[in-house]
């Protein structure tokens, strides 16, 4: 049973890698290429969000707020 489960998981991982690295016929780019191109933008957005959360956490709690 464990062997079959491992084989299915391996096949799913293989299919997923094939899907994200397959080149598009029209653009010649893969999903992975697009993600790698947009990675700096995603990192900048994550840094801004983390800073906003940090500011909200550091603010004192208003005792009159319910």
The biggest sheet amounts to:
none
How many beta strands in the DSSP annotation?
0
> What is the helix content?
over 70%
Give the structural class.
Answer: mainly alpha
Question: Which stretches are low in confidence, meaning pLDDT under 50 for 5 or more residues running?
Answer: none
Q: How does the overall form come out from the CA principal axes?
A: flat
β-sheet strand percentage = under 5%
**What is the H-and-E element order?**
HH
How many H/I helices?
2
Q: What is the CA-atom radius of gyration, in angstroms? A: 22 Å
Oligomer: single chain
Distance between the termini: 54 Å
- Overall number of domains: 1
Mean of residue pLDDT?
90
Organism: Pedobacter polaris
Protein name: YtxH domain-containing protein
Quick synopsis:
This is YtxH domain-containing protein. It is built from two helices and no strands.
Question: What order do the helices and strands come in, and which of them pair?
Answer:
Elements lengths: L1 H20 L9 H28 L8
Notable traits:
66 residues; mainly alpha; 0% strand; flat
Q: Could you explain how this protein is built, in words?
A:
- This protein is mainly alpha-helical and 66 residues long.
- The protein has 2 helices and no strands.
- 73% of the residues lie in helices and 0% in strands.
- The longest helix has 28 residues, at 31-58.
- The protein has one domain (2-58).
- It has helices spanning 2-21, 31-58.
- The mean pLDDT is 90.
